[in-house]
Structure formats: structure tokens, C-alpha cells
Design goal:
By secondary structure, this protein is an alpha+beta fold. It has five helices and ten strands. The strands form two sheets. The protein has a seven-stranded mixed sheet. It has a three-stranded antiparallel sheet with strand order 7-6-9, with no helix packed on it. Helix 3 crosses helix 4. The radius of gyration is 16 Å and the shape is globular.
Length: 206
Amino acid sequence: MESFMREAASVDVATSLRELREARGISMRALAAKSGLSANALSMIERGKTSPSVSTLYKLADALGVSITAFFGTQGQARQVVFLKSDERSRMPFARGIFEGLGGEQFAGRIQPFMLTLESGASSGPSHITHSGHEFVFCLRGKLEYYVDKQFFLLEAGDSLLFESKLRHRWKNPGVTVTTTLIIISCFAEGEAPHAMHWKGRGGEK
């Protein structure tokens, strides 16, 4: 797993964020206001001075009206067949973890598979996530705690979890070692970007 991560193409979040913002003609101040972030925090991210948390990435994607996979960069026209070698998939670092795209950002269908590698204590943030479709989680190593609809589930290597994504959910690595998890989001509404449908910014706490 470590060798795969070293070989994968790393995404420059700062550059991707700036390009997405400028392509939509949104000023940094306007994006800060829309996402609920401070202008200073947004500036730090765009200058590559700090790594955003998952909650922050969701908020920025939501404010820009894109899926979080948009930060992986332009992938060209969506395809009906996507084959990726291990060194071709993109990875996007965030605070204490890494997203690895598994082709969903290039695929024409409604499915988004990705892999999360999380350091001890890493989480999706204090806010909940909701979106349409279904979510499948498979723990490859370590431990992962998932909160779904007022229930806590502790996944260890080999354990899986499947639920309707409209239920409020969030996750955390409660262990002392690194955890790696495969997540597949499918059957979401046409035109919807499930990664962008974060609870924060939709009437919840800022």
C-alpha cells in the first residue's frame, strides 16, 4: 500500500482550488463568504501554506458547486470504461490523510470509488455528511469508526458497512495505527456530486 501511494500522481490542492475558483469568476473573498471560511484561511490553502481538512474540502466543493473529485484536476470527457494502473490514479492529501481516486472522476456512470488512508485520530470533521445514493465501506487495515444515523460502527480489517447515504454520517480513525479504507458511493441522483453534499453549510453549524 505504501508503494502504491508513493507511485500515485499527487494532486496540488492549492493549484486546483485556485483554477476552479478563477474558472467560475469567483473572488477569494466571495468564496470565503460562501464556504464559511475566513479569507485568511482560504488564502493559506491557495498558497499551499496549509493542508485543508476533509470538512474544509467538502465546504469548498459545495461552495463551488462541484464534487470533491474535481480537485483531482481535469480528466477530459467521461468514459464508459476506465482502467487505471496503480501508478495512474490520483491522490489528494488533506490534513492527516490522503484521498486516492479510483476512476470515478473519469467514469460516465453514477459511481464514485475512492480510497482513504488516515493517520491516527484523522476524521471527516465534526459535521455530518448527507447525499443521495448508497455508500459501501470496506476496511482494508487498521480501524475506522463510522457514525451513521445516531449509531456508531467500529470497522476493523475485513469488516464492511453499507447504508443509505441520505442518513447523516461521518468517520474517524480511532486507532493508534494508520487505517486504509475503500469507499464506494453509488446510485446517487443524476447530476448530483455526492462529495459536495456536506451537512456543514446547509443550515448546520459553521
